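Solute:Na+ symporter, SSS family
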Amino acid sequence: MHVLAQEQLRLDAGPVDYVLLALYFAFVLGIGLLARRSVSSSLDFFLSGRSLPAWVTGLAFIAANLGAVEIIGMSANGAQYGMPTMHYFWVGAIPAMLFLGVVMMPFYYGSKVRSVPEFMLRRFGKPAHLVNAISFAVAQLLIAGVNLFLLASIVNVLLGWPLWVSVIIAALIVLSYTGLGGLSAAIYNEVLQFFVIVAALLPLTIVGMIKVGGWSGLVDKVSTQYGANELSAWPGNELTGFGSNFLSVLGIVFGLGFVLAFGYWTTNFVEVQRAMASKSMSAAQRTPIIGAFPKMLIPFLVIIPGMIAGASVQEMMVFKQTGEGNVEYNDALLLLMRDLLPNGILGIALAGLLASFMAGMAANLSSFNTVFTYDIWQAYIVRDRPDSYYLNMGRWVTVGSTVIAIGTAFIASGYSNLMDYLQQLFSLFNAPLFATFILGMFWKRMTPAAGWSGLVFGTFASLSVFLMAENEVLDLPGQGASFVGAGAAFVVDILVSVVVSLATRPKPAAELVGLVYGLTPKEERTASNTGEDAGWYRRPALLAGIVLVIVIILNIVFG
C-alpha cells in the first residue's frame, strides 16, 4: 500500500472501537486456552480427536475460506469486474462443495487417513505422497502470507504502525491460539469469527445500498459509468479476459467451475481437515453441504460492497476510470468503511475484518502443521517416536510456519488484486492434484508411477502458461491465465497419467478397497441414518439437492 493511500484510508476509530477490538481478542485467546485442555494426543491437536458436531465443522468449513483473500479479494473483484465475480461462489464453489460432501468424504473419512497426502500415499505410494505433501506445504505458506499481509495492512491503516511491525504483531496473535489449542482452537474460533464477520459486513452492505439509492440506484450508477456488462454474471468477459462470449463461458464453466473449483474444494486439506474433525461419517459428509448454505449468500456481503465502492467512492471511481491515484482495488472495502460507518459499528467491522484474516491464516497454519508433521517429518525424517514427540513437533512447526509466512507476506504485497495471485497459486497446486485424484478414485488401472508423474507434468503445464502470459507470449488479461493454466494442468495430468498407467503395473485390486469407487462396497461409502444421524434433514444427498436448486435459481435471477 502506498504512503498516500495509508493517509487516505486512515480510519477514524474511537475509544469504543478499541474496546470492542480488545474484547474480541480476549475471546480469541480464551478459546485457545480452553481448547488446550482437551489436547492430550497428536490426533487431538491435528484433528480435534474426530469429535465435533456437523454444525460446528460446517460453519468452520466456511469461515476457514472467509479469509482476507475472500473478503478483500472478492470485494476488489466486485469493484473491478462487478457481477461476474459471483461465479467464484455459485459456479466456482457450491457444486464442488456438494461433490466433496456426497462423493468424496466417505473415502477420506472412511479410510481414517489423517490428511489428503496420506490418502495419496495409500492410493499411489511414496513418490506421489511426497510430491503432494511438499506442494501443499509450499502453497499453504504462500497463502498464509496473503492473509497475514492483509491482516497487517488493516493494523497499519488503523494504528499507523509500519507494515513490518503490523505483520509481526498480527502473526503473533494467530500463532498464540493455534499453537495452544491446535485444530479445535482454530475451529471454535472460526465459528466465532463467522458470526463476527457477518455482523461486520451486513451493516456495511445495508448502509452502502441506502447511500446509492437501493438496487435500482446501484444499477443506474454502474451502467452509466461502466456499462451494463458489470451488472450480469454471464458471459463474464471482463473477468476471464476473453473477447469471445463462448470462450468466456467455457473458461468459467470448465476452468473455474470444474478444474479450479473441484481442485480447490475436494483436495485442499485446509477445507477437508474441518470435515475430518467431525464425529461421524454423516457429519463429515454434511460439513461442506451445511457450509454451502451461507456460502451462497456471502457474495451479497462482499461483492456488492465492492461494486458500491466502485460506483460511489470518489478515489475508487477515479482509479477505475483512469488507472491513476493512490488507491487500488484491494482498498475497496476499507474506503467504504471509512466513508460510511460511525464509531461503534466501525469497531465491529474492524473486528470482522481482523477475524476473517485470522480465520484464513489459522486455517493455513493448522493444515500446514498437520501435513508437515505427519506426511513429511514422521514419514521421511524422524520415524517411530512416541506420540508426544509429534504433538510437540506440531507446536514447533506452527511457530516455524508463522515465521516463514511473515516472509511470504511481502511477496503478496506486490499484487494490486490479490485474487489474481491466488487463482494463479490454485491453478499451479490444486488443478493437477484434482486430476490425479479424480482419475485415481474412479479408474482402478491407474498406477503408482502415474500418480506422481501426472502431478509433476500437470504442474509444469500450468507454470508454462503462467510464464507465457507474464512474458506476453499469450494474451491473457484478467484472470484468464489462471483459468487456461488450470485447464492445461488438468488435461496434461490426465494424458500423462493414462499413458504412464498403460505402460506400468497397477496395484492389486485388494489393496484398493476403500480408495477406488468401484472396488468399495456401498455400505462403506454410505453414511448411517440412525442415532444422532437420523432424520430426513440430516441426509447429505437431500441437503445437497436443496442447495443445488437454490444456486440454479440465483444464476438465473442474476445471470
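thats it. The mean pLDDT is 79. The domain at 7-558 is CATH 1.20.1730.10 (Sodium/glucose cotransporter). bye
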